[in-house]
Amino acid sequence: MLSLLAGIADRLSRRGSNQAYRNEIIGKAMAFKMRHIVDRFRHQEEVSEFQALELERELKRYLAMCALHPRITFPMDGLVDKLWHVFLAHTADYRRFCDGVAGRMIDHWPAGGANGRSVRPADHATFIRIYKDLFGVLPAAHIWPFMEDLRDRQRRGSDHSAASADGCSGSAHHHFRDGGGDNAGTSGCGGGGGD
What we know:
Elements: H1 2-15, H2 18-31, H3 35-45, H4 49-68, E1 74-76, H5 78-89, H6 91-101, E2 109-110, H7 121-135, H8 145-156, E3 174-176
Antiparallel strand pairs: 1-3, 2-3
């Protein structure tokens, strides 16, 4: 019990140094070994090794975002979601990842599922803003389908709310939501990783 409390106190003290804490969480996520999971996914979905490794990177980034912003709903879609399902099937590995990166389980909810909330266009905008803040680039359209939808809308000029990264809209199959954590002040503006 004492070690649990010490771990929580240590995590909270590191949050005071936002950038160091963010880097630590992202580093832990990216360093997690999951080659056997990626190989299984690769053969199951018949994707190239390069594509599978790219999707692994994106899933780890996504889960790091979830760890840093537990009260924000992020959209999940496409092959990254399928890789997440394979990861979830490896329960012990997934639990170890979550404990090491987030200090708790990162739940996977179907859109409109158990938490009763569907992904909204604002969720896409928040995802894009935080992703760019954390990783220095926009999410790749060939990996995140809603980014391609945004690009198409911009080309057509048919959806003015999607005219910038801050107005992205689209559909997603799944999203993350975790009501736990102590981040009641999380604004979702991308500047407060590990609030």
